[in-house]
Amino acid sequence: MKIQEQCDTMIAINHLTFAYSGQPPIFQDYNLQIGRGEALSVIGPSGCGKTTLLYLLAGLRYPRSGSIFIDDRPISRPRPRSGLVLQDHGLLPWQTVRQNARLGLTIWGFYGSDGRHAPADEKLVSAEADQRVDAWLKKLGIEGLRDQYPLQLSRGQRQRTAIARTLAMQPDLLMMDEPFSALDAPTREDLQHFIINLHLESDLTYVIVTHDIEVAVLMGKKILVLQKGCNREAQITGNALFGQMDRRRQDEFQQKCEDLRQLLGSLK
Amino acid sequence: MSRRLNSRAALMGLLMFFVFWQLLAWLIRRPIMPSPLEVVPLFGVGLFGNLGIHFLASTARVLAAIGLAVVTAVPIGLGLGQTPKVDRIFAPLIAIVYPIPKIVLLPVIYVLMGITDISKIFLIALIIFFQILVVVRDEAANLHPELILSVRSLGAGRRALFRYVYFPASLPAVLTALRVSVGTAIAVLFIAEQSLTTYGLGYYIVVETYQVLRYSEMYAGILAMSLLGLILYFVIYNLEGKVNRYRAEEPN
């Protein structure tokens, strides 16, 4: 069952055209297929549409024309099983770490299993939701901070809280915008390790947007390159060095980074 | 924020208040300045009788006005704050209407709505309405778009956004606006209750006591109105402290 699932498509972008009002298009007649269980890095210079792509996949922005399918369903609003972690974490300052991490499940409870805002196939009792949130806080090493408020946390701790909030909803697709930027090196490596292991242990599909070439090579089985201006054709490369945290200093890894750097340079 | 009042300080303040009052009474020695030793017992007894009914009538009017103002101003403020295009159209109008002392509209409201409880409540609500409208609008406009997008990505639609983001985000500002405007609200209540009603502290102070020279009873009424203002102020002040707790322990 699992093997069969891994073969089919998680994300299908068909003839996507998108532009912000009054601006030239960022995507034009753009096509992209991402398989289930894929680990995708998206890289490109700032202003190339990386974050816009995430918003489109998350159902927070709508294509001018064309369509986006996730798990074989067209996206017209945020999908309950898609998790999104934005760059500024999006935590509510007046809620504790635990309340913040539980927010997704609380919102599901607010709507009930209506299939629109919350998955129809999962009904959670409040105590189960609490347990699940606590388990993720523990796995992310922030259970000791559960009664603190976001203002009292470091950037890395806030990032972990936002990740816990998303994972508590058991997504089959995880999207993260610059998840490792502005973190100190040990925290960054720790979180990279966590995400890679999560991917290896489950069949979680993820899309990580970054401007950092090393991060892109480390985190992506496939690397999607976006360019400044209009993206018409998906530039996607395979990557055999995915998850090789301890080989980052070796020539092969550095060479891959250099290749990417040149590709990026040629697109400008 | 202003210094927090603990119960010891409150007691000291109260004590000093009565001492100064007593000194004034000794100094002036006229019926218009009775001693607190005379007024406080009258107040205590009256609160369980006639004065108590006037007190409840006034309290009900203020609370109704606060309720009316909150349920109308919060949604409109959120709407304006989240739709800059609409806000730009109405902002000049609000800026001009906001500083008008609403009490001057008293005769207009009386003629249009009749001299009823409704018109009194409406007038007070009008004062509070603009205070809340402006702060809620500004709070809603200052919310990060990324925060809204993040919460929407968790599945939140309009109702959940209101419940989990907009409402709690604007609550501290609503309370501050209420605390600031509650004094004005009670002052207007005092004026509105002087005409054509039979219950309310304004009526009690002016018609039932002042006009028939029952000065000690009048002071019991003044005490009751002061108490009403004081209670509302401190209830709101304490609620503010509760909802602002997350700001308390910010790292340096």
Structure in words:
By secondary structure, chain A is of the alpha/beta class. In chain A, 37% of the residues lie in helices and 21% in strands. Chain A has helices spanning 2-7, 50-58, 97-111, 126-139, 155-167, 185-201, 213-219, 251-267; strands at residues 9-18, 27-35, 39-43, 65-70, 73-74, 82-85, 173-177, 205-210, 222-225, 235-238. Chain A has a six-stranded mixed beta sheet, with helices on both faces. In chain A, strands 2-1-4-5 form a four-stranded antiparallel beta sheet, with no helix packed on it. In chain A, strand 4 (65-70) and strand 5 (73-74) form a beta hairpin. In chain A, helix 3 (97-111) runs antiparallel to helix 4 (126-139) and helix 3 packs parallel to helix 5 (155-167). Chain A starts with a helix and ends with a helix. The model of chain A is unreliable at 1-6 (pLDDT under 50). Chain B has 252 residues and is mainly α. Chain B has two domains: 1-33, no CATH class; 40-246, MetI-like (MetI-like fold, Orthogonal Bundle). Helix content of chain B is 80%, strand content 0%. Chain B is built from eleven helices and no strands. Chain B has helices spanning 7-28, 36-47, 50-82, 84-97, 106-113, 117-142, 145-153, 158-192, 201-209, 215-243, 245-248. In chain B, helix 2 crosses helix 10, helix 3 crosses helix 4 and helix 3 (50-82) runs antiparallel to helix 9 (201-209). The longest helix of chain B is centred in the C-terminal third of the chain and has 35 residues, at 158-192. Chain B starts with 6 loop residues before the first helix and ends with a helix. The mean pLDDT of chain B is 91. The interface between A and B is medium-sized, with 37 and 25 residues.
